[in-house]
Amino acid sequence: MELDAADLPELTERQEKILALIIREYTNKPEPIGSKFLAEMHLANLSSATIRNEMARLEELGLLAAPHTSAGRVPTETGYRYFVRRLLSDELPPDEKHAIDSAFAPAAHDLESGLRLAAVVLARNVRGAALVAPPRAVNSQYKHLALLATQGRAVMMVLVLHGGEVRQQMLTLADVPSQEQLSAITNQLNALCDGLNAEQMRGRAKQVDGELAREIIEVIADVMDEADHAPMRFTYREGLSDVLTLFTESAGAQQAIRAVEEQHILHDIVAELPDQAIGQVRVVIGGDGRWQDIQHLGMVISRYGVPDQATGALMVLGPTRMRYGRAIATVRYMAGLVSGMMLTIYGEPPDRRENG
User: Fold this and answer.
1) pTM for this structure?
2) Any idea where the domains of the chain sit in the sequence?
3) Going by fewer Cβ within 10 Å, which terminus of the chain is more open, N or C?
């Protein structure tokens, strides 16, 4: 599991147990946890004084903090990172996996319905805001072209890429074309270019007849390059209004709203996950010291998709005290499930063709 965090301190088994108990109790109810409470409810074999000493040591190590003058402690971002890295068991129970599988069965051959359902299931299971980005080609490959004469030199180009992405663009050509000319070009390119990427399309331009066909190929290659570098957008969203009630301060709720609406930080985080890292989970806690605009948030993110063909992303976000074990397990399982759907719908990626 990927988790960008500084090196963590070494703890004794007892210190780990106390840290885990404090995090779990604080997740359920965001109030400082005291040594007396832990002794009465969880650690009857230890005295309050012993627990208090261990809590003080955890505070020295930066894993706990004492808010105000309270005798209790709350987890820090470093404490959460230690918990996620060292103390979590992040597998979904078999009955929950079965319930999710059953919910997805009706959408097995409809990716759009599956992605919308993924957001709903994530939000419900994790009690967080769930976001799902549709798949985008890893390396755009030509599938089909349509050219429609409109008025004068204007032409509507509709380009379909492998993986289902559709790009539309108005072209202004040097001369006024006839629909017959445009249809001849589309037939020629559809026969010659299936499966080619942008670079290969430019090489194929040397083999087609006519300046107009070569001009259109260059435009297509530019559109494919743009598709390869376009930011990923999380268009399916669920549970944001519910998660806002979990924040204990307005700043956290405001950060969650901005993160979901603006998405530039979400794009930066996903961009650091390699396209090949299908199902690999990344956890970001309090911005990991890099993004001040999400310092009150916890996020769990994973890519899904078909390697070398198309990938999307799904994530849950909430307060830093979110249930990381459940979030990680659910996100990982959902990434695998949606990846399987994509493989069923689109199959293996088309054969790579040599340039030219």
Assistant:
1) 0.76
2) 13-87, 94-137+231-346, 142-229
3) C
